[in-house]
Amino acid sequence: MKRLITLICAAILAGGCGRPSSTPEPEEQPQRLVRVLNWEEYIDPALLTLFTERTGIEVEYTTFGTQDEAVGLIRSDPARYDLVVIDDSVIKTLVDLQLLRPIETERLQGLAHLDPPGHSLPADLSRRFAVPYLRGFTLLGYRKDHVPDPPSSWRALWDERYRGRIMMPLDFQENFAVALLVLGHPMNSGEPQELEAARELLIQQAPLVREYADGIDAKDALMAGEAWIGVVYNGDILKAAEENAQVGYALPSEGLPLWVDCFVIPRDGQHIEEAMAFIDFMLEPEVGAQNAGFLRYATPNRAARALLPPDLMESPAIAPAADLLEKSLYYLKPDLARLRAYNSTAAEVLRLHRDARASAETATP
């Protein structure tokens, strides 16, 4: 628009109009921006608007579906994003690869609201590179109209009655955790024999699986009735169950994989001050409570928890029983042997799954 006005004035001047005012136009202030990378459907959208209204900082918001995708984006261009939400289990890997910038946590006014490591957070969680966002766990989601009794074990994912209706994660660290729990082993086991047994179990399961997908796709398939049972995240399935009476959830007796998602700042982020402002905004008790209530996830923010309804905070989908938590673990950074097992198994399982699906489609009249 400014260029159009300039051209019009030039035309008038050529025809003999008076001199333009010598008053200089005020210089435009550079736009303040923060580029955030987060999981799909993992923030209350109203908070993005509120943040911009309060600070004048625009949010360029991008989502990802799997953790491998997020890590790949950070590795390929450490300057592309200013702030990333990612699982605690990969933070050490990113630090070792020198892809993260230390966070000046002493500048965060809201840090005092967070639980200390070891309370509701992994004891080894580094506050130097990460600030906790939300925490949760992995469990079973199912359709009550096809699975009438709540499943009590992860083994239900190998039930022939649900052939073609089972959703499994695309992340094979999660699949190995489930298989190892079924076998009675620690979910982070690196023992070769236990990893091989888990591999065989996942290979056996491949023809039964409808799809290997991210958590949102699994939740959506259950809500649509396309899947009958699957691996999901607690907040996603709690919201789904509130919206659809046929959707249920179950906490398997073998134990639950636990996780904490955290804010991290990529090494070459371009808008560090704005990233810090966004973190501090999300640490505000009222903001944290609104976000946790909207998403139905537990928050490591004590002050935010105090503002949430007790019935929500006491739901089994947010606060499992103490005896079950004793059998539950946080994901640990996998060593090279475990990574090789995950990757080779993923290639084999996904190939078998494609073949099984193609065969089933060919056999369908």
Characterization of the model:
- Helix content is about 40%, strand content about 20%.
- It has helices at about 1-15, 45-55, 65-75, 90-95, 170-180, 190-205, 215-225, 235-245, 270-285, 285-295, 300-305, 310-315, 320-325, 335-365; strands at about 35-40, 60-65, 85, 100, 130-145, 165-170, 210-215, 230-235, 245-250, 255-265, 330.
- The longest helix has 28 residues, at about 335-365.
- The chain is an alpha/beta fold.
- Strands 1, 2, 3, 4, 5, 6, 7, 8, 9, 10 and 11 form an 11-stranded mixed beta sheet that branches.
- It contains 14 helices and 11 strands.
- It has 2 domains: about 35-135 and about 260-320, Periplasmic binding protein-like II (D-Maltodextrin-Binding Protein, domain 2), CATH 3.40.190.10; about 135-255 and about 325-365, D-Maltodextrin-Binding Protein, domain 2 (3-Layer(aba) Sandwich), CATH 3.40.190.
